[in-house]
Design goal:
Number of helices: 7
Low-confidence stretches: none
Number of strands: 0
Strand content: under 5%
Radius of gyration: 17 Å
Order of helices and strands: HHHHHHH
Mean pLDDT: 94
Structural class: mainly alpha
Length: about 170
């Protein structure tokens, strides 16, 4: 039994340095502060939970394929489209959210723009009743702002390459 438990508790992430971890946390604070400030300035409800998860990826794991700009924006826009479509075609049906999440994930995988936090966007769409236009505005503005801050943030030592270079 102990042998089987080992697979569940083993940490696969490599050890890092405390200053890199602190820098990642500061980047997330900066990114989320910018998104929140823009939300206050514009009145657009930009502070959605998926952006917190995006911050984990783009500031804490910037070399992950899932954290790259094409994945962030592509995943969010695709998920917003699927969520808006589900809201329009299946209003008020609780199970529409489950279908929309599954379709968003399949679409992201097919298009190779997988961004796990975007999987929550259909839930935001169906749970918040934001209009399709507002949802697209939220994910596009918030995603772009977080990416822009991450690009600048990763230029500060200790530097990390973000975005990854195309081969």
């Amino acid at each position: 039994m102990r042998h089987h438990l080992k697979h569940f508790i083993h940490r696969h992430e490599p050890k890092g340095h405390w200053h890199g971890h602190l820098k990642s946390g500061i980047g997330a604070v900066t990114g989320m502060t910018a998104v929140g400030g823009l939300a206050v300035a514009t009145g657009i409800p930009l502070l959605i939970a998926p952006f917190g998860a995006t911050a984990v990826l783009i500031f804490g794991q910037p070399k992950s394929p899932l954290a790259q700009p094409a994945n962030v924006l592509g995943g969010y826009l695709l998920a917003a489209f699927v969520g808006s479509l589900a809201m329009a075609l299946l209003p008020g049906l609780w199970w529409a959210a489950a279908v929309a999440v599954g379709l968003a994930i399949a679409g992201m995988l097919i298009l190779r723009v997988t961004h796990p936090p975007a999987g929550a966007v259909p839930l935001v769409a169906l749970g918040s009743h934001l209009s399709a236009w507002t949802l697209f505005t939220v994910v596009a503005l918030g995603g772009l702002l977080l990416i822009a801050i991450a690009v600048l943030h990763h230029l500060i030592p200790p530097r990390q390459q973000y975005p990854l270079r195309a081969e």
